[in-house]
Specification:
The chain is of the alpha/beta class. It contains 14 helices and 13 strands.
Length: about 375
C-alpha cells in the first residue's frame, strides 16, 4: 500500500525549499502525493504565487484562501482562525500518513496544530534554529514540539532539539533542501536576468529583501535608514522584493514605493519566481535586508549579505555576512565591507548532503506505529 504524504506550502520562501522534494514525491511510484497551498500564495498583493506552483506541474488537493486584508496582528490572528477550521476539514479528507511543514510561519502553524489534534504524524524541516528578533522563533519551536519527525540542517540544530526534549532517533541531520535545490539549477547569468528586467542586462545591482521586525517593531526606523543608506549608491541598480505579510509590512512597502518613485534606477516586484530569485541572489553585488536567504542560500552562492537589525538574531554567521544595527553609519559600514568582500573560501552553515535522497528514504521507511506517543527526553546534567 502506498504511503500517503501531504506537503503544505504557504509562501514563496518555503516553496523554494520544498520544490525539489515535491517533485520527487510526485514522481515516486510508492508514494501517494498530496498538496495543500495557503497563506501568501493566495494573496493578490503578493502576486498570487499559487499559479506558479500550478504552472510547475503540481495539482493541489486544496487551495485554502485566507483573504487576509490587514497586514497586522488582527489580520494574522484572523488568518490563523480561518486556517485552523479549514485545515481540519482538509486534513481529515486527505487523511495523510505524514504531513510535511517547513519553517516557522504563522500561516502554517494552524495546520501543524490541527494535525496534532487529529493524530496525524508531522515531519518538520528546519527546526532547532534560532531567530530571536522575530515571533517566528517561538512558532518554530512550537511546531517542533508538535512534530514527530525532524529534518534539521546541521549538528547545532540537532542538539537544540534534543535540548528541547525531542527524541534523538527521530531527528535527522540531513542538511538543507534549499541547498540541494540550488545544486540542480543551471545558472545562466545575464541572459536570464534581462528576462526578469531589462535594466539588469549589463548593470551592477543590489538585491534588497526587507521584512518586518515583529519583536522590536521599529519598522519605520528600519526601512528609512536602509533606504537612506542606499541613496548613497545610486550608480547601482537596486532590486527590491516585497516584504512578507507580517505586522508592519504596509509600513515597509509604503516607504519602498515612495523611494522607487523618486529613484528610477530601481525595481520592485511582488514576487520573483523560484529560479529568478536565486539568479538575482547569485549575481548581485550583495543582499541587504533581514531575510533568512542571507544566511542559507547567499553564503552557499558566496554572495555577501548585509544583515540589518535583529530579525535574524541567533542564526550562525559566516564570513560573507556583515551584521548592521539600525544606524545608518552601521549599515553603510557593512555595505562597504560587502563591496570589498573577496569571494574566497567561505564558511557554510547550511549544507546540502544529498539531502533529497536521504529525506525520501526516511519518509518512505520511518516506522509510524506509536510515533505519536511522545515522551519528553530529559537531559542528564
Amino acid at each position: 500500500m502506498k504511503r500517503k504524504i501531504c506537503v503544505l506550502t504557504s509562501s514563496r520562501a518555503d516553496y523554494n525549499h520544498l520544490y525539489i522534494l515535491m517533485n520527487k514525491l510526485k514522481e515516486a511510484k510508492d508514494i501517494d502525493f498530496k498538496l495543500i497551498i495557503t497563506g501568501m500564495h493566495t494573496l493578490k498583493k503578493f502576486g498570487f504565487t499559487y499559479k506558479e506552483i500550478i504552472n510547475d506541474g503540481f495539482k493541489p488537493n486544496f487551495i485554502i484562501k485566507t483573504n487576509q486584508k490587514d497586514l497586522n496582528e488582527k489580520g494574522m490572528i484572523e488568518t490563523m482562525s480561518i486556517q485552523l477550521k479549514k485545515a481540519y476539514s482538509a486534513i481529515k479528507k486527505i487523511d495523510p500518513d505524514i504531513f510535511i511543514v517547513l519553517g516557522d510561519r504563522y500561516d502554517m502553524y494552524p495546520f501543524a496544530l490541527a494535525c496534532h489534534i487529529i493524530g496525524t504524524p508531522i515531519a518538520h524541516f528546519h527546526g532547532g534554529e534560532v531567530t530571536t528578533g522575530a515571533i517566528d522563533d517561538a512558532l518554530r519551536h512550537s511546531v517542533s514540539k508538535l512534530a514527530d519527525i525532524h529534518f534539521v540542517a546541521n549538528k547545532e540544530f540537532e542538539k537544540r532539539l534534543i535540548q528541547m526534549g525531542e527524541r534523538k532517533k527521530f531527528i535527522y541531520n540531513v542538511g538543507s533542501l534549499g541547498i540541494d535545490a540550488i545544486k540542480k539549477i543551471k545558472f545562466n547569468e545575464r541572459d536570464y536576468l534581462s528576462k526578469i528586467n531589462k535594466k539588469l542586462k549589463e548593470c551592477k545591482y543590489f538585491l534588497i529583501s526587507l521584512h518586518p521586525e515583529t519583536i522590536d517593531g521599529n519598522n519605520q526606523r528600519l526601512v528609512k535608514n536602509v533606504l537612506t543608506s542606499l541613496k548613497k549608491y545610486k550608480k547601482y541598480t537596486q532590486v527590491f522584493s516585497y516584504p512578507n505579510s507580517d505586522t508592519g509590512s504596509n509600513i515597509i512597502l509604503k516607504e519602498i514605493k515612495n523611494y522607487i518613485n523618486s529613484n528610477k534606477n530601481s525595481v520592485l516586484m511582488p514576487s520573483y519566481g523560484r529560479e529568478e530569485y536565486l539568479h538575482l541572489l547569485k549575481y548581485s553585488e550583495f543582499l541587504i535586508g533581514n531575510s533568512s536567504s542571507g544566511f542559507v542560500e547567499a553564503p552557499y552562492l558566496n554572495t555577501p549579505t548585509v544583515n540589518v537589525g535583529t530579525r535574524q538574531k541567533g542564526r550562525p554567521v559566516t564570513k560573507s555576512i556583515f551584521n548592521a544595527s539600525y544606524a545608518c553609519s552601521s549599515i553603510l559600514k557593512s555595505i562597504k565591507n560587502s563591496l570589498n568582500y573577496k569571494k574566497s573560501d567561505n564558511t557554510i552553515n547550511y549544507k546540502g548532503k544529498n539531502t533529497i535522497n536521504a529525506v525520501l528514504r526516511i519518509l518512505k521507511t520511518v516506522k509510524l506505529d506509536g510515533i505519536k506517543n511522545k515522551s519528553f527526553i530529559d537531559i542528564r546534567w
